[in-house]
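Predict both folds.
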Amino acid sequence: MNPTRLLRPFFLKRLSAVRRFAGETEEIQRAQLRKMIAAARQTEWGRNHGFRMIGSYEQFADSVPPTPYDRFRPYIMRMIRGEKDILWPGKVRRFAQSSGTSDGKSKYIPVTDDSLRLNHYHGSRDVVSHYLSLNPESRIFSGKAFILGGSFANELSDQAHSRVRVGDLSANLIEAINPIANIARIPSKRIALMEDWSKKLPALVEASMDRNITNISGVPSWFLKVLQEVMARKGVTELHEVWPGLEVFFHGGISFAPYRELYNSIIDPGRMHYLETYNASEGFFAVSDSFDSAGMLLIIDGGVFFEFKPLGSERILPPWEIETGKIYELIITAANGLWRFPLGDTVRIESVCPIRISIAGRTKSFINAFGEEVMVHNTDAALTKTCRRLGCKVMNYTAAPIFTTCRTRGRHQWLIEFAVPPTDMELFETVLDQQLCMENSDYQAKRAGNIFLDPLTVTVASDGLFDRWLASTGKLGGQRKIPRLANDRHLIDAMLRFNNP
């Protein structure tokens, strides 16, 4: 029996609404904003910003300035202590802990009941809907979903959040999910929410290796570790020997490009599909609606209003005024109480009708020490093409500048942990430098003639370096990500201290 045939119509019905995205962006997004403003009129934020008098996007943009997290923090800490009707109606009992801000503290993102219903679970349904449309032969519901999540470990004192749950977004989603959905997923909540990764990893392997897994969901770097451990326990070299019915990986959090060859080396590409999602602590924003086209479809009816700020400009554009090919900083207003919040992510617009985006990088994750303006999408692409050409594979990487001195020119230093190292490291450095020039014209200009900038260099990371560094920060786990780029050396120098031979 294949339950997928019975459930397919429920999911495909959703796509009739998605088809409206192509021609009704402005109408749909204005309606989303109106609903959120109406819902929050009696909140403290709504009263302070005159929501009763706001009837249009233009009035909203005039009344509410873009608001970074440090201005939200006092409101959110009051919400964590139990105050109601602050940024969103009622009391909020769940918060997603996210990476720190400029003041070094963690962010706590409200996870309201409305954000769960209108956005996070709404987006999860979209993922499956698109996949079933793309793969009519799917048997995804004939087995289990293996979902790799985080925990409720956090940096708050017990007294500060005794009546709320604070932790990774995935932990909140797993705990709040409809119990019926637990029938179709593994591991158990007990294992899924474990805090100690050194204990959680073997528990995940034990819970999954003898089950019928048809789909997996998580961050590519962390899931790779789990899959490798499963294969080692079963004594196989190909994952389908363990899970013959495995057919799709729903992945997000970091670019999949540097990991594709690693996954292809352990999973038969002819039997596997991959769909990217953009599901952050602040919201579920986009999902791939194709196996091969560039970009993810922006979910414009999911409890989020999107705005776009061109790089180097103070203008902020609504979604119906953006242009294909441009890169923008993403600003959101959402049913979790974040109003005109700059996410810190930049996106490239792949199409506008409907809106499809690709993630270009973080606004603070770049190298511009010499005017080269290198972003994560440049380094991901350069590394992927270099590995493909030279037959090597990368587990993780980060990069930072080495600054100019009175005796030396500046350059970029890459710290790379290889799964399959190159046979000739000097050739690898040369090809990577050439590929980065091809991906970024500013870097190419600074490299011209070795006048302003020397060729990049690669430091080989010892096995497990990035895990050791993450453990030292208290952030080792299935949802944690390595910062790819930094415009100074504070991250890479800290990591290098763990680079034991």
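Second protein follows, with its predicted structure tokens after the sequence.
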Amino acid sequence: MPDTGKITASLISRWVGEQKPLIVELERLLTSFPALAPESGGDGELEKCCALEEKLRSLGFRDFERFDAPDPRVPSGIRPNLVVTVPGKNDGVRLWVMSHLDVVPPGDLSKWETDPWTAVEKDGAVYGRGVEDNQQGLVSSVIAALFFIKNGIVPEYTLKLLFMADEENGSVFGMQYLLKECSRNPLFSKSDFIIIPDGGDSLGETIEVAEKNILWLNVIIQGKQSHGSRPDLGINAYHAGCDLALKLHGLERRFSARNPLFEPDYSTFQATKKEANVPNINTIPGEDLFCMDCRILPEYKLDVVRAAVKEVVAEIERDYGVSVSVKEEQAVESVSVSPEAPVVKLIHSAVETVLGRKCRPVGIGGGTVAAYLRNAGYDAVVWSIMDETAHQPNEYSKLDNIIGEASVLAAAACLC
């Protein structure tokens, strides 16, 4: 049986590179199951999870655990979270690689050149909904773990693959469920290495150690409907809503700190989704609804931001005579991981060993499950080799990116 101390980067890269047909096969299998959340009109992730487990068993994986979150909104009544283990010589330290099963809707189908639910291999890439977000990370973790199984190697430390539900809609049935329901017997240890391949750059040179705080707001303005010729008899909720959206956007000037870890390096308050109000031109709208996507530097606590939002809302209510309700659709604060944390150094070392490149720590504006783990006291980082085509039409994942990513993850399992 080969010794983990004698495993070389060239051995890993050569073996992983030979798995290109299997990589395409896995992407095709996973893409064929539209794992959409009920918020997106889907039935959840169960069928995809079961198909994945069946495939992994056929490949030689033997240790499976399921942690199902109850969700009465889906036909099965559950949202699955699957843990697959490759036992190591030492279980005192585990290397976790975490990816998510759910995907976002394809959007306007006319903008797709292929069927989004049929993975198509073309020009060195695989195209389809979910092939990068987050099936690339899922497949790369499977190939990395399979390196040890197929070569008869027992890793020095236990390797854990986690395939989660509900990442795209707040992780209530995914990571949040796992942290809460397993609190008496935690799945994770403070000594574990946790890598989440769900964000990165095309060269694999950035390690995400910090995230902006997220605040999603659903804003409803109530005025008084009237005929378009008699605005004096009504209260135009749309006018109030426009002013409110602009004033909330203006909070970017109030929370004006800069942090070079992030791009952009400032907090953003952006009006996004807008609901229809009245169906005809000659009616003064008595109700208006819009949403805000706020990505706030971790220098600012969300409670401070909430207080500022309340001030702006009170000003609009006073000036326009409307009533405003604000509902938080998502609110996440995240602490940062030290650039000197062992898991950061591990990725630095693995990337340099396999790819011959240096890494640097960065922050991101998007939210990942790393935020929940960091808030619970675990050092979790986000790293991947990707072109960032997530949520776009004609989403793709380059096969070379998957191969490089899997090789780095396998090397990390040897180094940790």
